[in-house]
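Small ribosomal subunit protein bS21
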Amino acid sequence: MPQVIVRPNEPFEKALRRFKRKIEQEGILRLLKERKHYEKPSVKKRRKRRSGKKII
């Protein structure tokens, strides 16, 4: 569970940005989006195959 401790005299917006960045790094949002809707196995394989290829 990600946690962000708000420092003294720190604006709430800055702490919120740190929290969002931490969630993004841990991949929680991506996982949440994946689980939000059912994805057919063929679509899942296609997505994984596309993400594996890197264009240089």
